[in-house]
Amino acid sequence: MELIRPIVELVHDRGALFNLLLTSSVFKFEAERVLYCSMKDEDRKTQMGFLKAVLHNSEYAAHVCVYHAPIGRIHKHDTLWRRLGTALRSMCNLKELVVAEFSSPLLPATQDRKSIPFALERFQCRVESIHDHKRLGHFLAGQPQLLKINVEMVHDDPAYIEHFSSTFTPKLSLLRGPLEALKAFLPERGITMLAWETESSDFSPEYLPILSSLAPYFQHLKYLSFGPPEPSVDKDTYLLPIAHHFGSLEYLDLVGSRSCDIEALQRIPSLKGLTISMGRGVVVVAPPSTVSDIFASCPRLQFVAIEQLPGKRRKKVFKSWTSPQVPPAIYTITVSTFHHIFELLPI
Q: InterPro entries in the record, alphabetically (predicted)?
């Protein structure tokens, strides 16, 4: 068994894993474990077959540790959606869950929370309905082991924040999302890693009191990703006005290239590592003098990495400097929602 397990784990083709199921009882167990451990495939037919198998075999369901629903929005009356809602209740060892949209048909209501068998460590969703904010709060109240969350919120009703008590998810360390997510999850928690998907409206006058209320929690951050998730014509998303709040920041990922953000680095003397990323379609333009200017601005800086073109799907290519005088190294990494860029770069 000890020899077979690492061999089977190297097999990534699902067809080959199915063939291994038929060879012997030993290969059958190991192939099942690998085959049903993770589902991230976008193909609808593959998803339907996977969920059907999980629903009909509790041993298969017990193997599932990672499940990503298709990225495209699923209609609530869709067969896949209904099948997923039932299948989730049998995935007792699930640790990572990604769904395009959180809604009541997907997970149990408040009084049925005990029927959720898993203890998540990583969770991603989008919440649109104001009613689903409350349901999400109740769901997270039953997930005390959650470490990382990526949540897209579209409502700005102050009342929704009351659904996300700081007593929920006490172990949360990484938060990714827009300002609405920061307001809901950053206060009174020990979050040290933040991926802030900014919008120009975040820095409008009416939001200044909100930023001031979050400032004490910015002081706890060791890692920050800052910038718009999509291409934007807005030029009002600047780090400079709030840079002085990040007094303990060690690693910064700037999404897009804004010349004034280089000036902001002078206000973060604790900075050890800097990356400049493209985001989704945000083009980086960084002249050679930029690297020298950055190192001159940050006395404790150990490296600078700037994303390059081209990059394949879910891949990023970085050129990395440890000094302006040393030729840069080239790194290619696979993008991960639940890992910040400095965990992925081999530096």
A: LRR_dom_sf
